[in-house]
Amino acid sequence: MATPLVLETKSSRREPHLKGLRLVASLEFAKGLAVLLLGFGLALVHGQAWEVAENFLEVLHISPDHRYAQVFLNLADRFSDTRLWVVAATAVAYSILRFAEAYGLWRARAWAEWLAFASGSLYLPFEIYELVRKPSWMHVSILVINVVIVLYMLYLRSWGRAQTRVVRSQ
């Protein structure tokens, strides 16, 4: 008696990983939304950038005398219309990229997995630098989360190619 041939589809290969992909997609969507809201917030405070920057530092309990606080305040003071448009355009472009990645991951698309792998890999050197420069639990957490996502995407792409080869050879 011959065993029936079961054809595996792309969606059936991805089902075990759908929860993981959707978790990463939600994270990417949240990052895109946060940057978009920050961009809109900058547009709303135009002309009052110095006051908003001071209030922001006060809420975070950061002394305006701190070196990085001064850099932040100086940037706010020099904020011009041109810079506002550049920051807004960058925020919109970044958000669109994150939203597209989130959509693709939610729908278990291979291109989105590659995009998540590539974009996550780009951040790793900066995260390592920040961790070495100023070790903190926050820097460790961000690095670990990003490494897990990058390795997970690499695993999915490697596993996906191996599964495709098995199905094609049958």
What does this entry look like structurally?
The protein is an all-alpha fold. It has seven helices and no strands. The protein has helices at 10-14, 18-44, 49-59, 67-77, 81-106, 110-133, 137-169. The two termini are 18 Å apart. The model is unreliable at 5-9 and 165-169 (pLDDT under 50).
Set out the fold topology:
Blueprint: H1 10-14, H2 18-44, H3 49-59, H4 67-77, H5 81-106, H6 110-133, H7 137-169
Provide a quick synopsis of the model.
With 170 residues, the chain is mostly helical.
How is the main sheet built?
Answer: none
Count of separate DSSP helical elements = 7
Strand segment count: 0
Instruction: Report helical residue fraction.
Output: over 70%
Q: What global shape is seen? A: globular
Judged by helices, strands and strand pairing, the structural class is: mainly alpha
Task: Determine Rg (CA atoms, Å).
Answer: 22 Å
The arrangement of helices and strands along the chain is HHHHHHH
Distance between the termini: 18 Å
Strand content: under 5%
